[in-house]
Amino acid sequence: MLKTTTLFAVGLAGCVWTHAATAADPSYTRSLAATCFTCHGTDGRSVDGVPPSLAGLNRDYLLKQMQDFRDGKRPATIMHQHAKGYTDEQLALIAGYFAAVSPGRAAAAPAPR
Ligand code: HEC
């Protein structure tokens, strides 16, 4: 009995550790933020501001907008659906990512051949 409990505790500690390591992993955070790049531009620098650029916005502002979209407090055409796919922890990581990016113009697309 004691052995089972000990094994369980070790296993649980392992899960908690793994989870914490994942959350702090920059490539995990960037892969979450990358789901936004299609519309908001690479690293949140959108082309001509449509939809708005996210790069360099305030972290708390970004997090609040995502929570408001998710909770139906801010009307939207797309974002209310998209915001529902993330946990609060993931939204905080995404907001932190875009807040840390310097604002700027989107890189020019390659010329068509
Ligand atoms: C399919 C395209 C699409 C994707 C993907 C997308 N967005 Fe949006 N986003 C929009 C549109 C369109 C708007 C304008 C509001 C609306 O109509 O939904 C918007 C608005 C926003 C706003 C409000 C900006 C402001 O100035 O207040 C935030 C914040 C935002 N998106 C964050 C995100 C984040 C973070 C992700 C990734 C997790 C993301 N979006 C993914 C299309 C998208």
Give a verbal description of the structure.
This protein is mainly α and 113 residues long. It has a domain at 25-100: Orthogonal Bundle (Cytochrome Bc1 Complex, Chain D, domain 2), CATH 1.10.760. Helix content is 59%, strand content 0%. It contains 5 helices and no strands. The protein has helices at residues 2-24, 26-40, 59-70, 79-82, 88-100. The protein starts with a helix and ends in a 13-residue tail after the last helix. Residues 10-18 have low confidence and may be disordered. It binds heme C. The site of heme C has 17 residues, from helix 2, helix 3 and helix 4.
Give the arrangement of secondary structure elements:
Blueprint (H helix, E strand, L loop, with lengths): L1 H23 L1 H15 L18 H12 L8 H4 L5 H13 L13
The structure holds heme C.
Heme C binds next to α2, α3 and α4.
- Just give the CATH class of the domain at 25-100: Mainly Alpha
Number of strands: 0
Question: What is the residue-mean pLDDT, rounded to a whole number?
Answer: 85
What is the overall shape? globular
CATH topology of the domain at 25-100: Cytochrome Bc1 Complex, Chain D, domain 2
What's the gyration radius in Å? 18 Å
CATH superfamily grouping of the domain at 25-100: Cytochrome c-like domain
Would you list the SSEs in sequence order as H and E? HHHHH
Bound molecules: heme C
How many distinct helices? 5
